[in-house]
Design brief:
Blueprint lengths: L1 E5 L2 E4 L4 E8 L6 E8 L6 E7 L4 E4 L7 E6 L4 E6 L8 E9 L16 E2 L3 E6 L1
Parallel strand pairs: 2-11
Antiparallel strand pairs: 1-3, 3-8, 4-5, 4-9, 5-6, 7-8, 9-10, 9-11
Length: 127
C-alpha cells in the first residue's frame, strides 16, 4: 500500500486549498481513509475520515463545515477540500489508510488505527 499526498502550499487566511492523496495497492472497499495534521510543537490530530464503500464521512469539530473529504474510486484518489482557512489550520497534513475487516466499520479518529501513511504535505496559512 502506498499513499502519496500533495497539494499543500501557502494561502492567506480565508482562502482555500485542495489536498490530494493517491492511493495504490489496496482494495478500497476494505479501507477507511483519513486526513490527519500535525502543527509544530503539537501532537498529530485527526481532521477528517471517510468510508470508501458508502462515502460516510466524519470530521473533527474544528474543521466541520469548512473542510470536505471525498474519494474518486476511478482515480484511486482521496481529497481534502479546505475552505475558509485559518492560521490555526497550518500544519503538515497526512493521508492515512486503515484496513477494516468489515466494509461498514466505523471511521475512527485514533491515529493508531491507521497503519498506512503517506508523506506529509505542508499547509501554511498567513494572517
Amino acid at each position: 500500500v502506498q499513499l502519496q499526498a500533495c497539494g499543500g502550499g501557502l494561502v492567506q487566511a480565508g482562502g482555500f486549498l485542495r489536498l490530494s492523496c493517491a492511493a495504490s495497492g489496496l482494495t478500497f472497499n476494505h479501507y477507511n481513509m483519513a486526513w490527519f495534521r500535525q502543527a509544530p510543537g503539537k501532537e498529530r490530530e485527526f481532521v477528517a475520515g471517510i468510508r470508501w464503500i458508502d462515502d460516510y464521512t466524519y470530521y473533527a469539530d474544528s474543521v466541520r463545515d469548512r473542510f470536505t473529504i471525498s474519494t474518486d474510486s476511478a482515480k484511486n484518489m482521496v481529497y481534502l477540500q479546505m475552505n475558509s482557512l485559518k492560521p490555526e489550520d497550518a500544519a503538515v497534513y497526512y493521508c492515512a489508510a486503515r484496513f477494516v475487516s468489515s466494509m461498514r466499520a466505523s471511521v475512527t479518529r485514533n491515529e493508531y488505527d491507521y497503519r498506512k501513511w503517506g508523506q506529509g504535505t505542508v499547509v501554511t496559512v498567513s494572517s
